[in-house]
Design a protein that fits this description.
This protein is α/β, with parallel strands linked by helices. It has helices at residues 19-22, 44-64, 78-83, 91-99, 124-129, 133-151, 176-188, 196-204, 216-227, 262-283; strands at 2-6, 11-17, 29-32, 70-72, 105-109, 114-117, 158-161, 191-194, 210-213, 232-236, 242-245. It is built from ten helices and eleven strands.
C-alpha cells in the first residue's frame, strides 16, 4: 500500500503495510499495521487478508487527516480478505465503504485504451441479472465526471459495449441490448450498444475516450490484451484518487524474482498526475 502526498515537485511516498515487510523499503514515512513474519502462521490466508484490510483502513485515515493526497494499493487476494474478516468483493468496495462514497466505478487505463465496468466481481449470470438501465446510467455518469475532473477531458466521448454477440443482432441473440442497454445509452447520450468485437478497436483508434463494459471479463480482457503490465486500475467516484496495478497477486511467482513492477510504477505516476490536475483546477 502506498499513500502519496504531493509537494510542488514530486510525490512523497508513505508506505502502509506489515511492519516487517515495509521496514527496509525507501519512503518518507512508514505506517505499520502488524507483522507478517514470513507468512508462516497456520492461518496465513486470514492473516494476509487482515493485514490487507488494516492497511486500507490506515491509508483512508491518513487521507482523512490530510496527510496524503492519493492512495495506491497493491494487488489484493479476495479470498484472503474474506478470511481476514472483510466480506467485500475487493479493494474497490472496501474503499467505497470506508470513504463514504455513494457510487464507484472501476476503470482500467493505459495509453491505448480506457475501459470502465458497470458490474465487477460477480458470476456472469448474476451480473446479467442485475444489469438495468438505471445501473448503467449511474456508472456512465460517474465515468463521465471522472474523465472530466481527474483526466481533464471536457467532453468525454463514450461508448457502451454490448452484452450479446453482434449486439444481439436485432434480438436474434438476446434482447438485452434493446430492452436494457439501448435505453441507457440514449439517456446518457453516448454511442452504443456496440458489439464487443469492434468497440474496443474503435476506441484504440481514437474514436472514443472510454468504453463502458457491462460485465467484468469483456472489459478486462480488452484492456489486458492491449496493455497488460502497463495499465492502471482507477476507482472513479471516490473522494480521494485511488489507483492500483492492472494485475493480481500472482502467488505462483512469489519469491522467484519474476514480478514486474511496471504497472505499480504506472499506478503511482497516474495518482500523482491526477492530484496535480486537481490542484491546478482548484487554483484556476
Amino acid at each position: 500500500m502506498v499513500a502519496a502526498s504531493l509537494d510542488a515537485a514530486d510525490a512523497e511516498i508513505v508506505l502502509v503495510g506489515p511492519d516487517d515487510v515495509i521496514a527496509g523499503l525507501p519512503a518518507a514515512r512508514h505506517v505499520g499495521v502488524g507483522r507478517w513474519e514470513g507468512g508462516g502462521a497456520p492461518d496465513a490466508l486470514a492473516l494476509a487478508g487482515r493485514l490487507t484490510g488494516l492497511s486500507i483502513e490506515a491509508a483512508v485515515r491518513l487521507w482523512r487527516e490530510g496527510a496524503v493526497d492519493a492512495i495506491v494499493t497493491g494487488p489484493g487476494h479476495k479470498r484472503a480478505l474474506h478470511a481476514g474478516g472483510y466480506p467485500v468483493p475487493g479493494h474497490t468496495e472496501l474503499l467505497r465503504d470506508l470513504s463514504g462514497a455513494k457510487q464507484v466505478v472501476m476503470m482500467l487505463v493505459s495509453d491505448r485504451l480506457r475501459v470502465a465496468l458497470v458490474t465487477t466481481h460477480l458470476a456472469l449470470r448474476d451480473a446479467i441479472a442485475i444489469l438495468t438501465p438505471e445501473r448503467i446510467v449511474a456508472a456512465g455518469e460517474v465515468l463521465r465526471r471522472g474523465l472530466q475532473e481527474w483526466f481533464g477531458i471536457a467532453e468525454p466521448r463514450l461508448a457502451l459495449c454490448a452484452l450479446n454477440p453482434h449486439a444481439g443482432e436485432g434480438g436474434l441473440f438476446g434482447h438485452e441490448e434493446q430492452r436494457v442497454l439501448a435505453p441507457a445509452a440514449r439517456q446518457l447520450g453516448i454511442a452504443g450498444p456496440l458489439p464487443a468485437d469492434t468497440v474496443f478497436v474503435r476506441a484504440m483508434r481514437g474514436e472514443f475516450d472510454a468504453v463502458l463494459a457491462p460485465y467484468h471479463d469483456v472489459g478486462m480482457t480488452a484492456i489486458k490484451v492491449s496493455s497488460f503490465g502497463k495499465a492502471v486500475n482507477v476507482t472513479l467516484g471516490l473522494p480521494v484518487p485511488r489507483t492500483a496495478p492492472d494485475h493480481g497477486t500472482a502467488l505462483d511467482i512469489v519469491g522467484r524474482g519474476l514480478a514486474d513492477p511496471a504497472s505499480m510504477r504506472e499506478a503511482v505516476k497516474l495518482a500523482a498526475e491526477i492530484v496535480r490536475r486537481l490542484r491546478e483546477t482548484r487554483e484556476t
